[in-house]
Design brief:
By secondary structure, the chain is an alpha+beta fold. It contains four helices and eight strands; from the N terminus they run ββββααβαββαβ. It has a four-stranded antiparallel β-sheet. The chain has a two-stranded antiparallel sheet with strand order 1-4. A two-stranded antiparallel ribbon has the order 2-3. It is elongated. The two termini are 38 Å apart.
């Protein structure tokens, strides 16, 4: 790969290059980023598919998501989360176990929503707050209960 004629020396096939930053208002910094044409094309198709038109906001969202992931790995980090469960309410004692878990961990459970999906299946959504590792442990416990068909924990940092 040879160097291009661009003043900052980005290789051919690379669009832009991190070469400068300046404040542009509202606390934002303007930067340039080197991205292979193929990767940028895939990114633009991803944006169009989702109806997004702003690369900058999409990049900021991706950066925030990665920072939140890294913060959750830190011991003692505080987080908020939603835990979504789909379960069979006719599974023996499952509803009671879910209620008991909510009461035992009431300091972590901010709110719950319960929806009857059909004659057997229920959707339970729990809003949680606490130490990331504790929330993950709590979610793993509930997701592992017999009769829980599917579920997912979605966590976010309080320092978004």
């Amino acid at each position: 790969m040879r160097a291009s004629a661009e003043p900052w020396g980005a290789p051919d096939g690379v669009l832009g290059f991190v070469h400068w930053a300046r404040e542009v208002g509202m606390g934002l910094e303007r930067i340039s980023v080197a991205i292979e044409k193929g990767l940028l094309g895939r990114f633009d198709r991803w944006l169009r598919k989702r109806g997004l038109s702003n690369r900058s906001e999409a990049v900021r969202d991706l950066i925030r998501a990665r920072l939140v992931e890294d913060e959750q790995a830190e011991s003692g980090s505080q987080a908020v989360a939603s835990l979504t469960l789909i379960y069979d309410h006719e599974q023996r004692e499952l509803s009671d176990r879910l209620v008991d878990a909510g009461h035992r961990h009431q300091a972590r459970v901010l709110s719950t929503m319960h929806v009857h999906l059909d004659e057997r299946l229920c959707l339970e959504v729990l809003a949680l707050r606490g130490e990331a590792a504790e929330l993950r442990h709590f979610a793993d416990h509930l997701l592992g209960l017999k009769g829980v068909k599917h579920g997912r924990l979605v966590m976010s940092s309080l320092r978004v």
